[in-house]
């Protein structure tokens, strides 16, 4: 058995579409850029990822509870959070191709070229200069830097650039039934603010004591200028965020604790250590005093899947100021009132999905000589796989189909099981491999005599003979979320 060539993003996109994981949104109208729909297998995988995250937060920690806040929020929320004034990307257009780019990404691309050419110092110098100019809001300076670096538009090949302008990433819409009553509101660009504005509601109604956390899973929207790389950068996406409220002064300790805990989570769901790394932020977001990304090695390189941010008391303090409602907590242990500091963990469900999918996609050459062929399968952790078991009668006749159906029925209440009798058994194994089903249960003539079946294991393709009565426990053990939660 040998490993086939490296997987490209195109392999991933094609496989995801062909086997019902991800479709372009409104495809019959040629799609909508950077918006995607999850299909029948994709939604199962995504739900499993969301469930394991939810349980890892709210089930494994006595002091973390969940909420589900609305997408629409009072517009002042976004003033307080800094998003109205500061949630911008610097954009630049090429006058010849009319293509729009993020100025910072053009410069980061150039720094990457330096790094690849063995000039890491030059790369760092460029990033530092970019950070300085962006920090000083010197957009003319950013444009000069792009020109000085000789950066050209990949489409037109020219350096005929417009000025750099700031572009707010929030989508806005109107509420109100008549135009005069209408007021502008935003589609939330992060779920975190729904947690901040409910901080006291949860603390008081749940009698929570600092340190404690509030977790949430939900949609977020950003009008990304350059949306590419499939579900990596979307305009509508889902975040899984947890705000951990701590005593001021203890935030760095908690920041380090969560940094490690989140890395452990990614390893526990099956992402290999060598495909994960930390990346400290060079340029801190407007709310953070420390920030690190956990990056996964996608086919297009190491990129962020999760951010861990020490957000100080920035959000609660600003909400207190703008709402005129105190956001303080009385800490009875030290007899003090304070606005808690916050350590946030924020992972994109879609990016985690993409990382899990890329990691699972496996192409191997199997067999020898004439019988050699390529085999593709998705090696998901069994607890994450969209379908856990497929029951396959060797043939449809002589009662085998009915026997297989009764076994599928027996297993369905414990885990997701499908029945398939269409085509030769080899083809049916392949079909299940392609969606990552970890166990195929074959029903043959021996089953009719002694109630035993074979379990075929997806990754090794090895088969073992077991009694029907053992199936529920044996497979149920392997596919339980507990297997992941125990490893966190
Ligand atoms: N509340 C903090 C926050 O929103 P962020 O680094 O901007 O921080 C957190 O986003 C995570 O959300 C990212 O690590 C990524 O996984 C996901 N994310 C952000 N923008 C995204 C986009 N356009 N498409 C898909 N996922 C995105």
Write the layout of secondary structure elements.
Elements: E1 2-3, H1 9-18, E2 22-24, E3 36-38, H2 42-59, E4 64-66, H3 76-80, H4 83-86, E5 88-93, E6 100-102, H5 103-116, H6 120-135, H7 139-148, E7 165-168, E8 172-175, E9 183-186, H8 192-196, H9 199-205, E10 212-221, E11 236-246, H10 251-268, E12 276-280, E13 290-298, E14 301-310, H11 314-323, E15 329-331, E16 336-338, E17 341-348, H12 349-360, E18 361-366, E19 373-378, E20 389-393, H13 400-412, E21 417-419, H14 425-435, E22 439-443, H15 445-450, E23 452-457, E24 463-467, H16 468-479, H17 482-486
Parallel strand pairs: 4-10, 20-21, 20-22
Antiparallel strand pairs: 1-18, 2-3, 5-6, 5-7, 8-9, 10-11, 11-17, 12-13, 13-14, 14-17, 15-16, 18-19, 22-23, 23-24
This protein binds glycyl-adenosine-5'-phosphate.
Glycyl-adenosine-5'-phosphate binds at residues 190, 192, 222, 224, 233-234, 237, 239, 241, 304-307, 344, 346-348, 350-351.
What does this structure look like?
The chain contains 17 helices and 24 strands. The chain has 488 residues and is an alpha+beta fold. The chain folds into 3 domains: 241 residues, BirA Bifunctional Protein, domain 2; 63 residues; 105 residues, Anticodon-binding domain (Rossmann fold, 3-Layer(aba) Sandwich), CATH 3.40.50. A 7-stranded mixed β-sheet has the order 4-10-11-17-14-13-12. It is globular and about 80 Å long. The chain binds glycyl-adenosine-5'-phosphate. Glycyl-adenosine-5'-phosphate (GAP) binds next to β11, β14, β17 and α12.
Ligand roster: glycyl-adenosine-5'-phosphate
Number of domains: 3
Radius of gyration, CA atoms, in whole angstroms:
26 Å
State the strand order across the main sheet: 4-10-11-17-14-13-12
In CATH terms, what is the fold-level topology of the largest domain?
A: BirA Bifunctional Protein, domain 2
């Amino acid at each position: 058995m040998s490993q086939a060539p490296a997987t490209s993003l195109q392999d991933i996109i094609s496989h995801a579409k062909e086997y019902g994981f991800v479709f372009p949104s409104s495809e019959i109208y040629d799609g909508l850029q950077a918006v995607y729909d999850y299909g029948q297998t994709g939604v199962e995988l995504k739900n499993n990822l969301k469930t394991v995250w939810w349980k890892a937060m709210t089930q494994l920690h006595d002091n973390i509870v969940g909420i589900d806040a609305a997408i629409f929020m009072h517009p002042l929320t976004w003033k307080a959070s800094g998003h109205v004034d500061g949630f911008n990307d610097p954009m630049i257009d090429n006058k010849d191709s009319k293509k729009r780019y993020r100025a910072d990404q053009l410069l980061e691309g150039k720094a990457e070229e330096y790094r690849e050419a063995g000039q890491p110092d030059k790369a760092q110098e460029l990033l530092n200069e970019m950070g300085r100019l962006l920090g000083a809001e010197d957009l003319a300076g950013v444009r000069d830097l792009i020109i000085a670096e000789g950066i050209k538009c990949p489409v037109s090949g020219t350096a005929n650039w417009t000025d750099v302008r700031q572009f707010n990433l929030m989508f806005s819409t109107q509420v109100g039934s008549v135009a005069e009553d209408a007021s502008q509101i935003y589609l939330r660009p992060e779920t975190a603010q729904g947690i901040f504005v409910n901080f006291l509601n949860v603390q008081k109604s749940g009698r929570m004591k600092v340190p404690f956390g509030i977790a949430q899973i939900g949609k977020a929207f950003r009008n990304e200028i350059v949306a590419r790389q499939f579900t990596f950068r979307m305009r509508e996406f889902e975040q899984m965020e947890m705000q951990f409220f701590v005593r001021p002064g203890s935030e760095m300790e908690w920041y380090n604790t969560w940094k490690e805990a989140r890395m452990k989570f990614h390893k526990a769901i099956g992402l290999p250590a060598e495909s994960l790394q930390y990346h400290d932020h060079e340029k801190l977001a407007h709310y953070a005093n420390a920030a690190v990304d956990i990056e996964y090695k996608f086919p297009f390189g190491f990129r962020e899947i999760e951010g861990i941010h020490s957000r100080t008391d920035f959000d609660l303090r600003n909400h207190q100021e703008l709402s005129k409602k105190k956001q303080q907590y009385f800490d009875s242990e030290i007899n003090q009132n304070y606005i808690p500091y916050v350590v946030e963990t924020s992972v994109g469900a879609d990016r985690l999905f993409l990382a899990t999918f890329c990691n699972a996609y496996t192409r191997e050459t199997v067999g020898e000589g004439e019988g050699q062929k390529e085999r593709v399968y998705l090696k998901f952790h069994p607890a994450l796989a969209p379908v856990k078991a497929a029951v396959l009668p060797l043939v449809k006749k002589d009662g085998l189909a009915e026997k297989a159906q009764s076994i599928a029925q027996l297993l369905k209440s414990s885990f997701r099981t499908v029945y398939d009798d269409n085509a030769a058994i080899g083809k049916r194994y392949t079909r299940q491999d392609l969606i990552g089903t970890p166990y195929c249960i074959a029903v043959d003539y021996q089953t009719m005599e002694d109630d035993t079946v074979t379990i075929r294991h997806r990754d090794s393709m090895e088969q073992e003979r077991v009694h029907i009565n053992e199936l529920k426990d044996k497979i149920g053990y392997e596919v339980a979320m507990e297997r992941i939660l125990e490893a966190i």
